[in-house]
Design a protein that fits this description.
By secondary structure, this protein is of the alpha/beta class. Among the domains are: 202 residues, Rossmann fold, CATH 3.40.50.12780; 91 residues, ANL, C-terminal domain (GMP Synthetase, Chain A, domain 3, 2-Layer Sandwich), CATH 3.30.300.30. The protein contains twelve helices and 20 strands. The chain has a twelve-stranded mixed β-sheet, with helices on both faces. The radius of gyration is 22 Å and the shape is globular. 39% of the residues are buried.
């Protein structure tokens, strides 16, 4: 990667002396360079040591975990083994919703820094409210830098990102400029320019914007990338400076990788992450599959009986944060699925996932033929009504079925307010038809669940 550390002292440019926050990132990267080569058992031993501290904190400060860990027979101070760990129950989204404030720590350590709140729907349509700290963000930022280093990106180049953005950021047709590629890279190295465009922008406008920007790197979602590639192929257009595409948020198929190489001559590098945990697994720079970020999370892949899957088997992902002392997440079932990979030929001891499955989401098609990624406005749902789970299915060009699991039937006024939120989020006054389910919205073939499903062809 062609970038040097950025010095906080203007007269001492080399060797660089980073600012305190950047120095912490540099210290983590130094350790990551060593720990990635540790044997798998050595990594697991260190994870269990850290998780014993996380469990003790949860038992001491979160009423939900005091009850749950007592019931499982766990006691503070005892060495934590794999057998002990697997006796702990799984944490579901419904558990988080029901626990409310009792899941959160009543005494977040001061060294964790400021506490922020986040709400996420994940890939299951069940919104949950969580708290995170600066310590969590530091590990997330270190994962960002590891990913850049692994794939040897030129940070002086231009990045274009088409993704979910805050309201009024990256609005079409021109988008907006960012302060560097990302906070971590900008703070430690400094970067070239970065331009942002909202994911809700229609594909034709995205194509025009990309041609104007002519970036060195692009970040977006696989579904959106596929639509862009098809439009570029139809137009016969090119991005002459493009060196690579980073994808997030969905499953990347071999066909999409081939299509990207064919049309743009650029490789895809995929990231598996979640709002709850940050970076969970990064595409190996030297071999196939994904390496788990073992320094920040314990990732389990479990079969239907709750037993660890073997290489080649597909199971549900269960994640535990090593460092979230604000809302401890212990054996949290994401409801994503992955295939366990054999040890990687690259020699890294980091656990390997052969592939991530079960996270594709469709694009909404507007009656005028435009398509874009459907942002569903979920953050406002529970403000309006007691919504537990949701799913939208586009049945026809102008009709969408809204499937809900709620604590009770909604009033006509609540439905009307939801209609307004959903129509605004989708960017069209679709006819909405509500359907209520008692406990859970049925999952699709192969156990998949999608927030938005389009039944239209193409």
């Amino acid at each position: 990667m062609s970038a040097d550390f950025k010095s906080a002292l203007p007269e001492a440019v080399w060797p660089a002396l980073p600012a305190p926050g950047a120095a912490a990132l540099a210290a983590l990267l130094f350790q990551f360079e060593r720990t990635q080569w540790w044997p798998a058992q050595m990594l697991l031993d260190h994870q269990l040591q850290q998780l014993a501290q996380t469990l003790k904190h949860a038992w001491d400060t979160a009423p939900f975990y005091r009850r749950r860990l007592d019931a499982a027979g766990w006691r503070p101070g005892a060495a934590l083994t794999c057998d002990d760990w697997r006796k702990l129950p799984l944490l579901t989204r419904r558990d988080i919703q029901d626990a409310g404030d009792e899941l959160a720590s009543r005494a977040v350590p001061a060294y964790c820094g400021n506490v922020t709140s986040t709400q996420t729907s994940g890939s299951t349509g069940e919104p949950v409210h969580l708290r995170r700290t600066q310590l969590d963000q530091l590990l997330w930022n270190a994962g960002t830098l590891r990913e850049h280093l692994w794939h040897k990106r030129d940070l002086s180049g231009k990045l274009a990102a088409i993704r979910v953005l805050p309201k009024d950021v990256g609005l079409p047709p021109h988008g907006s400029a960012a302060r560097g590629w990302d906070p971590a890279s900008h703070e430690l190295f400094g970067t070239g320019p970065a331009m942002l465009l909202s994911l809700t922008t229609d594909i034709a406008t995205q194509v025009r914007w990309l041609r104007e920007q002519n970036p060195d790197y692009l970040l977006t979602y696989p579904t959106n990338l596929g639509a862009l590639l098809e439009q570029f192929a139809r137009d016969g257009a090119r991005l002459p400076r493009l060196r690579g595409v980073t994808t997030v948020g969905e499953t990347v198929t071999p066909a999409l990788r081939e299509r990207c190489a064919e049309i743009w001559g650029a490789p895809i590098t995929d990231i598996y992450s979640s709002q709850e945990f940050g970076y969970l697994a990064l595409q190996c720079p030297d071999g196939g599959g994904y390496h788990v970020m073992a320094e920040s999370a314990l990732v389990e892949v479990l079969d239907a009986r709750g037993e660890p899957c073997r290489p080649g088997e597909i199971g549900r992902l269960v994640i535990s944060s090593l460092h979230n002392f604000a809302t401890p997440l212990i054996r949290y079932e994401l409801r994503d699925y992955a295939e366990v990979g054999a040890p990687c030929a690259c020699g890294r001891g980091l656990p390997r996932l052969a592939r991530i499955v079960g996270r594709n989401r469709n694009m909404v098609t507007l009656p005028d033929g435009r398509r874009h990624w459907p942002l569903l406005g979920f953050a406002e749902y529970r403000v309006i009504a007691p919504v537990r789970q949701y799913q939208l299915i586009q049945r026809a060009a102008e009709e969408i079925e809204v499937r809900l699991v709620t604590d009770r039937l909604l009033t006509a006024d609540e439905e009307a307010r939801l209609v307004k939120v959903i129509q605004d989020a989708l960017g069209w006054p679709f006819r909405l038809r509500f359907a209520y389910f008692e406990r859970e919205i049925p999952r699709g073939a192969g156990g998949k669940f999608e927030e938005f499903v389009s039944e239209l062809e193409g």
